[in-house]
Amino acid sequence: MSHLRDKRDVEYIRDISDRALDLMSMYNVIPSPSNYQVWYDYASEENMSLNKAIDDMIRQKKSFTSIACNNLYERFFSGDRVQNAVTSTGQGIQNELSRIAKAVSDLNKGTASYGVALKESLHSMGHVPGAETLKTIISGLLTETTNFASKNDSAQQQLKESAKTVQKLQTTLEAVRQESLTDMLTNIGNRKSFEENLKTTIEKINGKEDELCLVIGDIDHFKKFNDTWGHHVGDQVLKAVAHTIKTRVGEVGTAARYGGEEFVIILPDVSLEKARRLTDIIRLSIAERSMKRKSTGENIGRITCSFGVAKYRPGEHRNDFLERADAALYQSKANGRNQITLEGEAPRNVVKIA
User: Fold this and answer.
1) Which end of the chain has fewer CB atoms surrounding its CB within 10 Å, N or C?
2) How far is CA 104 from the centre of its chain?
3) What residues have CB less than 8 Å from 91, skipping those under 6 apart?
4) Which residues in 35-59 are b (16+ Cβ under 10 Å) and which e?
5) Averaged pLDDT for residues 53-67
6) Considering its fold, how many domains does the chain have in total?
7) What confidence tens digit (pLDDT) does each residue in 247-291 have?
């Protein structure tokens, strides 16, 4: 089924719904609303991280128990919609306050003009015989107008203060959102950040001739580092690799930690060959680093990484793009690690650095 098909199309929704229910039945998933939401998204192939997580579970023959299903829901759906709703509501409140403040301001200007006109009328009536009664009426109107204008000034000020408060809340929410897009350990983008960036980048280039490449990297034998030296050293390794990738990529693209020891790099306006050259610079920079244990200064050896690189094909779904880069990465692993494989490329011999 084409991913470009209108998502509001009834037939499309029915097809995805049927597929989701079939999958739930196949894997003995309880048909609860939260589980249906998870499997509907999986069937639609719109959430790369969710699809990869479920595919990994299927590949590893893990059971979709109630706990496993709850974990999937909490991991991929809890919090995002609330955050988006709060942000959207805050924007709506601020817009409404600004609109009201403008209306009051316009009314205040009209009231001021009306007050001036009354003053001028009152002054001119001083020369009209028998106008005392009218002067008294107009004088009363002028007093009420002044009072009304004063109240409008106060109301307008309060509205401005309220708008400022809402704006501050929005700023805070945006800061929280940015924090939610950052991997706290390595201080680069996280998987959510990567997925948002990739989706936005693909939307920008679709229909154009712009090039786009995706790199996936994986630290070789990372489990061995953790098992031998402990998780603190493993964290040190992750930080070092992330720093090297971020530094080498610079302004050319965006880097993120995809999960575990996997990293991803989005490279807009970069050809496949240029992506390979940049990735090789990153690979060599990582391999040249000599890591030491911070607490003791003990040498823990060198780090190496394997990489896969793919080029975006116009009109394809981003999941397919990711899968091709991932397949290239696994080819690098199968060929001996510490090397780069381009999609569809024949295995290349690269000397492994221990």
Assistant:
1) C
2) 38
3) 170
4) bbebbbbbbbbbbbbbbbbbeeeee
5) 90
6) 3
7) 999 999 999 999 889 999 999 999 999 999 999 999 999 999 877
* Cα–Cα distance, 177 to 243 (Å, whole number): 22
User: Per the domain annotation, does 2 fall within a domain?
Assistant: no
pTM of the entire predicted model: 0.60
Token duo for residue 301: 């050896």
At 156 the three-state DSSP class reads: helix
**Per the residue annotation, which of 120, 179, 196, 261 is the catalytic one?**
261
Does 34 have pLDDT greater than 70? yes
- Residue 166 has φ and ψ, to the nearest 5°, of -65, -40
Domain assignment of residue 5, yes or no: no
For the stretch 106-132, what's the b/e string if a residue is b when 16 or more beta carbons lie within 10 angstroms of its beta carbon? eebeebeeebeebeeebeeeeeeeeee
Whether 238 and 246 have beta carbons less than 8 Å apart is answered as no
- Residue 195 and residue 338 in one domain: yes
Tell me: do 250 and 283 sit in the same domain.
yes
What is the spatial distance between Cα 150 and Cα 84, in angstroms, rounded to a whole number?
39
Task: Dump pLDDT digits (tens) for 202-234.
Answer: 999 887 888 999 999 999 999 888 888 888 888
Q: Tokens in use for 269?
A: 């306006």
* Residues 176 and 234 both lie in one domain: no
Confirm whether 261 is a catalytic residue. yes
Is the four-CA dihedral 284, 290, 295, 298 of positive or negative sign? Answer: positive
Among candidate residues 34, 54, 78, the one where a domain is terminated = 78
Q: Which domain holds residue 315?
A: 191-342
The last residue of one of the domains, among 50, 78, 106, is: 78
Beta strand pairing status for 254-259 and 262-268? Answer: antiparallel
Q: Within a 10 A sphere around the Cβ of 177, how many other Cβ atoms?
A: 15
DSSP 182: B
Q: Is position 217 within any domain?
A: yes
- Bridge partner list, 266: 214, 254
Same domain, 73 and 172: no
Q: By C-alpha distance, which of 117, 115, 104 is closest to 154?
A: 104
